[in-house]
Structures are given as structure tokens and as C-alpha cells.
Design goal:
By secondary structure, the chain is α/β, with parallel strands linked by helices. The protein has helices at about 20-30, 50, 75-80, 90-100, 190-205, 225-235, 235-245, 265-280, 280-285, 295-310, 315-320, 340-345, 390-395, 405-410, 440-460, 470-485, 515-530, and strands at about 10-15, 35-40, 110, 115-120, 125-130, 135-145, 165-170, 185, 205-210, 220, 335, 350-355, 360-365, 365-370, 375, 380, 395-400, 425-430, 465-470, 535-540. Strands 1, 2, 3, 4, 5, 6, 17 and 18 form an 8-stranded mixed sheet that branches. Strands 7-16-8-9-12 form a 5-stranded parallel sheet. Bound molecules: flavin-adenine dinucleotide (FAD) and 3-acetylpyridine adenine dinucleotide.
Length: about 550
């Protein structure tokens, strides 16, 4: 019989929301500090991104040897990746292995959605409410909700009338979907669409791709990890980890020093050709240093990709439609692909440019554009996410005097270091807006944030402190720095989700921090070394209401 005298615990030192990379590591670090912690996760398992995104072709595009945790040598040496870019099931297996290895599940509450979190000034505690009406209290409230975890389906007229099956790629059925013999439509040609289109095209009877903006993509060149490469990587791990931490994008590549405009056109093309053949992000990151700051330099890479499209795609009109024209290369998150452009040479694939032929409505039988109706059996929405703030806002976080985070951030996020925000004491955001987050190989940024937060909590613990909040002037200065760093790049020239452009009504600001992983890491370390400069640390004393 259960012991009815044992109360179910509802008060913690820290409550964390989310059990992806961020939440798992945060829980481990909180335990190391001896703090009581609970992770709340709405899925029925760990993995976050890799739990939800099970669409055909889903895999990472950071390479496996650096898209992983690095905090434990034992884990680094024990885990074996099979390929250069592992598929979703393998990354999910990895995160399950982490949860088991660190015995994390006993402090994770699954199938539970957080609906609200309110800071109570008198007790100095956060009160966290779940969908089932349960209330937890915590001194620290830590969001690990992910930057790309709020799926976005455009509000097309008639969407609910469709008689076939519809899927968003980030809410994919666990049992998979068999498109054999089916006429399928896919809307969206971001990283997700670009991964899914070649795979669906191979299975479906027919695939119609609805494209609003043609995208630049570079071959991934996936391959099994050769045993000697794995051994070499393991032998050099310290060096690789150090490089990722000091790098601009959290990847262990040498950042080039040469300008694209310094070299003769033939030499430049040779650089692009070599990197195109090598595959992956190195095309953008290892070629020339000025692609993301100089429009003329940028156009040399953009034109190279457009030329490749014309070489690969046999129908000139399809090649023209696939050729990006309205944004510099790299200013939207660069996708990498396996046979993307080649797929448009297939007989069973059609490309619809919805700028010249807009979608007017979803009908019971398919998709009607301004020109005609396309009959389909299934629609795949590869339409992305309400990035960076979507999942934070869905938490309905209220700070001092009941102020709601989305009200404070109505004109765009305001943070100090992307970690904290004024009027929300003891709230920590892992990879929040204003941090390198999505501009980096994310596990590197996640580890840095988690370790910085843990060190900060340890510092407070050792001094008997339990309240932390940024100073307003520190936040204002950080916001200005984030904006000026973005303005020095070409990023603001694209209608991207980095700029909030994919969500009607979202403020147009650059959400992540473009100053680079290494520089950001050093800045955060200096702030910590200067006794958490820019923050007020104090001891909260419970206020007793006057009689
Ligand atoms: P997530 O993995 O998003 O986890 C957040 C968790 O919070 C989720 O499990 C969610 O269910 C939970 N949650 C959110 N709100 C609530 C709530 N209200 N209540 C309860 N639980 C909640 N990054 C790279 O660097 N390299 C890559 O190659 C790469 N590939 C990607 C591929 C895809 C398809 C996508 C979508 C993203 C990719 N990313 C990649 C980014 C990826 O999101 C990060 O690398 C990383 O997985 C983020 O981990 P996280 O724990 O911060 O967030
Ligand atoms: O989403 P996206 P995603 N009508 O926003 C189109 C990570 N990721 O899921 O470009 C018609 O990039 C939209 O068109 P446009 C990675 O960080 C990584 O693909 O806005 N079309 C676009 O084509 C990535 O950046 C991997 O004009 C509409 C597409 O839908 C992030 O997740 C794999 C529309 C959305 O593209 C998001 O990628 C997958 C509308 N109303 C994802 N609204 C890796 O391999 C949107 N679109 C690492």
C-alpha cells in the first residue's frame, strides 16, 4: 500500500521545461550542484527536436562527430556514430542513451505540458502550472524549450476541408507514413522540405512541390563513418572540442582569412568546386571570410550555386524557378541536401512557384492556386516554426507585477546575453534570443549556456544568495550590441525566420546573436569572472503581508 503520509513533492530548487539536449544536460548539472530539480516534458520521451521531427529524410546537417555532447570523455569515447550525418532515429537513440547513462528519467515528468509560469514576488518563487492543473514551485525556472519547437502551419483558407491526410513535418506520426501510390503535395523548401522532397519523391506516385522562395542548397555527401576516421576523431577529441568552442559557428573548421574578391575568378571557382565536392557547411564556412558581410563576395558563391542548378536540372524553366534570386546565400539557414536539385529531373515531380501562382485555398481534394486545382491524397506542411520565441511565449511566463513575457517583448526580445531578462528574476533561458543559438552548431551553445547557468547557481549557492536579475542598463546595452552585430552582416537582407519574417505580425528584428560562438563564450566568461557583472545577485527574504 502506498504510504499516504509521504506528500508528493511539488517544490524544487529548479524546474526545467524540455527534455532535449538542453533539458537533459541542465538536469545533470543541477544534480551535480546537489539541487532538487524536475524536468517537465510534454512528449512521452526524451529527445526534443529528435523526438518530434520524424519526417522522411530527417537527419542532422552538423556532422555527427561534433553534433553531440562533449562534457563527458567517457560518453564521447563510448558512443559510436554510424554516419557523417546520422538520421533522426540514431540521434534519438543517442539522447535516450544519454538519459539512461546519466539516470535522468527519474526526475523527468513526461506527457506534461507547461501552460503557465508566474513569479511570486513575496515568496521569491516561480509557480509553474501544467495542463492538468498541477502546480509546482521552484526558486529557479529554466526554459529548455528549444528554438525550433513550435510548429507553424500557415492559415490557408479551407485547410480543415481537405479530405486526405495532412502532416506537419515536426509532428510526424511515430508509425511513419507510407506514400506508395499516393499523390502528395509538399509546401515549403527550407531545410526540412529539402531533406524530405527527394525521399518522398522516391516513394510517392507523384509529388507536387509548392515553393515560395527558392533556396540555395549544397550537397551533404553523407557517408558511413570509416573506422579510421572515428579513431582519429576520438584520438583528437580535446583539440576538436576546443576548436568548436573557440570558433564562430561552433564547428571545428578553420575559418578562412581570404576574401572572395582577392582571388582570380578561376581560383575562386576551384575553391567552391572543391568544397561542393567535399559537401556540407564547409562550402559557406571554409571558403572565404566575407561571404556573409560583403554582398559582392556573397554573390560569387550565390552565382556558383545557380550555375550548379542549371547544370543539374535538365528543364531550363524548372532550373530558373529553382534559382534563388531574392536573398544572399547564407542569410537563411543554409540547408544541405542529398539529390535535391536532381529530384526535379524525375518524371513524377512537379515544381509550382507560388509567387507567380499563389495558393488560394486548400480544397477537399487538394490545393487550388490562382491557375488551377492540384488534386492530391496527402499534404505535407514543411512550413517551419515560430522560431526562438514561439515556445517561450506558449509558456505564458509572468514576471514581476504579473508582466507577461510576450508583452515585454512585443517589439522583439530584450535579454541580457540571451540568458535572462529584466523583471523575470531567476528565469534562465537556454539558447534564448540574443545568444548564438541557431547560428551555431547547437550542442556547443547548449553546453556553454548550461555550464554558465550551473556555475552561476554554484556561485550564488556558495554565498547564500538565491536571487538573480539583470540590470536594465545591461539589457539595453546587450540588445544594442545584438542589433549592431547583425547590422554588420547581410542577415537582415533575407525574409527569414531569423528575422521573424515567416510569422505574420512577428516583429522584424534579428533574433539570434551574430557575434560568434567563441567571442560570446569569452564575453560570458568575463562577466562571470567579474562577479556576474550586469546582474544583481541578492538574497530574497520572504515578505510577510502586514496585518
Ligand atoms: P528541443 O530539442 O527543441 O527540445 C525542447 C523540448 O521542450 C521539446 O521536447 C518540447 O516538447 C519541450 N517543450 C516545449 N514547450 C513545452 C511546454 N510548454 N511544456 C512541456 N514541454 C515543452 N541544430 C544543429 O546545430 N545542427 C543540426 O544539424 C540540426 N538539425 C536540426 C534538424 C531539425 C529537423 C530541426 C527542427 C532542428 C535542428 N537543429 C539542428 C536545431 C535543434 O533544434 C538543436 O540542435 C537541438 O536539438 C535543440 O535542443 P533543445 O533541447 O534546446 O530543444
Ligand atoms: O522551416 P523554414 P524548416 N506559404 O522556415 C515556406 C532547422 N532544420 O522546417 O522561404 C507558402 O526554414 C517557406 O517559404 P519562405 C534549421 O535550422 C535543420 O525547413 O518563407 N510557403 C519555406 O520554404 C532550419 O532552418 C535541419 O518564402 C510557406 C518553408 O515553408 C529550421 O529547422 C533540417 C509559408 C519553411 O522553411 C527550420 O527549417 C530541418 C506560406 N504561408 C530543419 N510559410 C537539418 O538538417 C512558410 N512557407 C539540420
Amino acid at each position: 500500500m502506498p504510504d499516504t503520509n509521504v506528500a508528493i513533492r511539488t517544490d524544487y530548487d529548479a524546474v526545467v521545461v524540455g527534455a532535449g539536449f538542453s533539458g537533459l544536460y541542465m538536469l545533470h548539472k543541477l544534480r551535480e550542484l546537489g539541487l532538487s530539480a524536475k524536468v517537465i516534458e510534454m512528449a512521452d520521451g526524451v529527445g526534443g527536436t529528435w523526438f518530434w521531427n520524424r519526417y522522411p529524410g530527417a537527419r542532422c546537417d552538423s556532422e555527427s562527430y561534433y553534433y553531440c555532447f562533449t562534457f563527458s570523455k567517457e560518453i564521447l569515447l563510448e558512443w559510436e556514430w554510424t554516419s557523417r550525418y546520422p538520421e533522426q532515429p540514431e540521434i534519438l537513440r543517442y539522447l535516450n542513451y544519454i538519459a539512461d547513462k546519466l539516470d535522468l528519467r527519474r526526475d523527468i515528468q513526461f506527457n506534461t505540458r507547461v501552460m503557465g509560469a508566474r513569479y511570486d514576488d513575496s515568496s521569491g518563487k516561480w509557480i509553474i502550472e501544467t495542463e492538468s492543473g498541477e502546480h509546482l514551485t521552484a526558486t529557479y525556472f529554466i526554459t529548455a524549450v528549444g528554438c525550433l519547437s513550435s510548429a507553424q502551419i500557415p492559415n490557408f483558407k479551407g485547410r480543415e476541408t481537405f479530405r486526405g491526410k495532412s502532416y506537419h513535418t515536426a509532428q510526424w506520426p511515430h508509425e511513419g507514413v507510407d506514400f506508395t501510390g499516393k499523390r502528395v503535395a509538399i509546401i515549403g523548401t527550407g531545410s526540412t522540405g529539402i531533406q524530405a522532397i527527394p525521399v518522398i519523391a522516391r516513394q510517392a506516385a507523384h509529388l507536387t512541390v509548392f515553393q515560395r522562395t527558392p533556396n540555395y542548397t549544397v550537397p551533404a555527401r553523407d557517408m558511413p563513418m570509416p573506422p579510421e576516421f572515428k579513431q582519429g576523431v576520438k584520438a583528437r577529441y580535446d583539440e576538436i572540442v576546443q576548436k568548436t568552442r573557440e570558433s564562430v559557428f561552433g564547428m571545428p573548421f578553420e575559418f578562412p582569412t581570404q576574401s572572395a574578391l582577392e582571388v582570380a575568378p578561376e581560383e575562386r571557382d576551384k575553391v567552391y568546386e572543391d568544397l561542393w565536392n567535399r559537401g556540407g557547411f564547409c562550402f559557406m564556412l571554409s571558403s572565404f571570410h566575407d561571404l556573409i558581410i560583403d554582398p559582392v563576395a556573397n554573390d560569387t558563391a550565390a552565382e556558383y550555386v545557380r550555375r550548379k542548378i542549371r547544370e543539374i536540372v535538365t528543364d531550363p524553366e524548372t532550373a530558373r524557378k529553382l534559382s534563388p534570386y531574392n536573398h544572399p546565400i547564407g542569410t537563411k539557414r543554409p540547408p544541405i541536401d542529398t539529390d535535391y536539385y536532381e529530384t526535379f529531373n524525375r518524371e513524377n515531380v512537379a515544381l509550382i512557384d507560388i509567387r507567380s501562382e499563389p495558393i488560394e485555398e486548400i480544397t477537399p481534394d487538394g490545393i487550388r492556386t490562382s491557375k488551377r486545382e492540384y488534386g492530391v491524397d496527402a499534404i505535407v506542411y514543411a512550413t517551419g516554426f515560430d522560431a526562438m520565441t514561439g515556445s517561450l511565449f506558449r509558456l505564458n511566463i509572468r514576471g514581476r507585477d504579473g508582466i507577461l513575457l510576450q508583452e515585454k517583448w512585443a517589439d522583439g526580445p530584450h535579454t541580457y546575453l540571451g540568458i535572462a531578462t529584466v523583471d523575470f528574476p531567476n528565469l534562465f533561458m537556454i539558447t534564448g534570443p540574443g545568444s548564438p543559438s541557431v547560428l551555431s552548431n547547437m550542442p556547443v551553445s547548449i553546453e556553454q549556456h548550461v555550464e554558465w547557468i550551473a556555475a552561476c547557481l554554484g556561485y550564488m549557492q556558495s554565498r547564500g544568495l538565491n536571487q538573480i536579475e539583470p540590470l536594465r542598463e545591461a539589457e539595453v546595452a546587450w540588445d544594442a550590441h545584438v542589433a549592431e552585430t547583425a547590422a554588420a552582416t547581410l542577415f537582415p537582407r533575407a525574409d527569414s525566420w531569423y528575422m521573424g519574417a515567416n510569422i505574420p505580425g512577428k516583429p522584424r528584428v534579428f533574433f539570434p546573436y551574430a557575434g560568434g560562438v567563441g567571442a560570446y563564450r569569452q564575453h560570458c566568461a568575463e562577466i562571470a569572472a567579474n562577479s556576474y557583472e550586469g546582474f544583481v545577485l541578492s538574497q530574497h527574504r520572504e515578505r510577510v503581508a502586514p496585518r
